[in-house]
């Protein structure tokens, strides 16, 4: 509703940046919430606007949005046309962002060809992707390789090469899950289930199909490519004589069909010719405006100028207000970072103060985490408290030590010798507990493993940026890699969610603040010398 009410005001502003940003944000918001008709309207408007101002980068970004809408409403040929247009543009660019978008377009084409069962086109896209991936930075290459393996797994499945398909998909799955991409995660589950079904291992196949059913029960929607899950479930329950479960699968399939019909109802009748009509209307409107502009009188120009001046005043006021809010958030974050830095120093000093005096005695082996657990869990007999409470206290202390030692920043050596970011399995091993216990504990007290680690990394980053001048010279991409984030996009989103600021804004303001403090100290020292 807010975006809808803002539209007339934004249209009156003579600011291309604001207008383009409004169209793009509106498209993404409506698309994310599956309002495909409204998303299409804004995507079309964005395409026309960026074409008018000759912003080719954003123009092709809008074409990707249009292609995605066509994909989700099963107009695959039109989706291919728009993905191809965008791919050709980004392929010709020289910047790193162009390379990333180029590879993203290849993936979009690949998933569309997979839905069309077009093995020849899918093979061509996979080969082109393999040639392009070496141009990426290592972390981005690892990320995109997972999605390429997903496409390879789909191709192998279409070619009936089931063992190879399973290997590709299982290789892709961990990175896709780490990225929080639950849609493609469950598409992988669907293919793994279909592979097992084809191999007549139906019982194990159903475990994957049930994962998708659980997602539907949680989210109340699924993408169309996951629909066939319920065909398999209904067939399986019919085969084993589970009528109630068969009925549930059929009812869920019916609910899905209703969802798809509802999503398509508002745009199916006009989606195939919407773009052509919009372009004709846009061109006609532009010509009409050009003719009318020649007939405007001096008085009308004064009125328009007055309105524009008023709008600019309102815009300037709101912009200043927003800048004040950002400044306030920055100051709060900086104060928090300073307090955390002092707290960390106090923690170190406190730890040193509690240490026993050094004496010359034979050194005993340190107690293992398991021994500590055994000793701690004996406490209920003395203190009359539950073992769960004792275990929670132990985990609180263990995590406090983990935070003091900055274990959330340490890289883990994989079996192949490469380094990777911390996973919950690593923390389970370090704390000598099990995944179920730790996961429940983190969900209850820390908001979950991912949220917990992200908050620690961002908090530590703000502390380090405050203290380290050289660190502030690094790019946002370098900071995201240094502090263990999956991708630049993920880093920007999570930093904004946690702080209300973008990383680039925080670093820029911090650099200005440090320069001001330095100038103030120099002036103060100069006065003292005089």
TrEMBL record:
Top-level lineage group: Bacteria
HTH araC/xylS-type domain sequence ranges: 406-509
The protein's name: AraC-type DNA-binding protein
Listed transmembrane segments: 298-317
Organism: Paenimyroides marinum
Pfam families: TPR_8 (PF13181)
Gene Ontology MF term list: DNA-binding transcription factor activity; sequence-specific DNA binding
Signal sequence segment: none
Region named Disordered: 339-388
InterPro entries, per database record: HTH_AraC (IPR018060), TPR-like_helical_dom_sf (IPR011990), TPR_rpt (IPR019734)
UniProt KW keywords: DNA-binding, Membrane, Transmembrane, Transmembrane helix
PROSITE patterns in UniProt: HTH_ARAC_FAMILY_2
């Amino acid at each position: 509703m807010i975006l809808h009410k803002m539209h007339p005001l934004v249209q009156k502003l003579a600011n291309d940046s604001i207008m383009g940003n409004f169209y793009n944000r509106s498209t993404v918001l409506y698309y994310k919430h599956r309002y495909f008709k409204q998303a299409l309207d804004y995507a079309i408007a964005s395409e026309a606007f960026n074409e008018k101002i000759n912003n080719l980068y954003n123009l092709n970004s809008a074409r990707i949005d249009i292609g995605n809408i066509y994909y989700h409403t099963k107009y695959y040929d039109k989706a291919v046309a728009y993905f191809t247009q965008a791919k050709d543009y980004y392929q010709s660019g020289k910047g790193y962002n162009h390379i990333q978008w180029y590879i993203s377009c290849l993936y979009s084409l690949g998933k569309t060809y997979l839905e069309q069962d077009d093995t020849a086109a899918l093979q061509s896209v996979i080969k082109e992707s393999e040639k392009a991936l070496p141009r990426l930075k290592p972390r981005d290459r690892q990320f995109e390789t997972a999605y390429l393996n997903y496409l390879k797994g789909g191709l192998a499945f279409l070619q009936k090469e089931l063992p190879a398909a399973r290997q590709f998909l299982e290789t892709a799955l961990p990175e896709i899950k780490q990225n929080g991409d639950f849609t493609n995660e469950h598409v992988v589950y669907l293919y793994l289930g279909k592979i097992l079904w084809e191999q007549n291992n139906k019982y194990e196949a159903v475990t994957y199909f049930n994962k998708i059913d659980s997602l539907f029960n949680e989210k109340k929607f699924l993408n169309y490519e996951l629909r066939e899950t319920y065909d398999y479930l209904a067939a399986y329950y019919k085969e084993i004589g589970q009528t109630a479960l068969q009925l549930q699968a059929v009812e869920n399939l019916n609910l899905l069909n209703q969802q798809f019909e509802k999503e398509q109802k508002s745009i199916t009748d006009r989606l195939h010719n919407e773009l052509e009509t919009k372009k004709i209307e846009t061109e006609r409107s532009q010509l009409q405006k050009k003719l009318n502009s020649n007939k405007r009188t001096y008085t009308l120009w004064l009125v328009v100028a007055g309105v524009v001046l008023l709008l600019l005043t309102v815009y300037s006021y709101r912009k200043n207000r927003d800048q004040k809010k950002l400044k306030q958030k920055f100051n709060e974050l900086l104060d928090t970072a300073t307090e955390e830095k002092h707290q960390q120093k106090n923690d170190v000093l406190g730890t040193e103060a509690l240490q026993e005096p050094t004496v010359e005695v034979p050194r005993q082996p340190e107690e293992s985490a398991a021994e500590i657990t055994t000793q701690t869990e004996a406490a209920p007999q003395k203190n009359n408290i539950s073992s769960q409470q004792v275990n929670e206290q132990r985990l609180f202390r263990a995590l406090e030590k983990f935070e003091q030692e900055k274990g959330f920043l340490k890289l883990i050596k994989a079996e192949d010798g490469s380094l990777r970011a911390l996973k919950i399995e690593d923390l389970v091993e370090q704390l000598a507990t099990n995944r179920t216990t730790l996961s429940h504990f983190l969900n209850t007290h820390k908001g979950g493993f991912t949220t917990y680690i992200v908050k620690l990394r961002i908090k530590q980053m703000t502390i380090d940026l405050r203290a380290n001048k050289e660190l502030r010279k690094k790019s946002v991409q370098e900071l995201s890699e240094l502090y263990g984030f999956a991708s630049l996009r993920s880093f920007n989103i999570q930093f904004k969610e946690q702080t209300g600021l973008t990383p680039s804004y925080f670093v820029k303001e911090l650099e200005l603040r440090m320069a001001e403090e330095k100038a103030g100290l120099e002036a103060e020292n100069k006065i003292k010398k005089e």
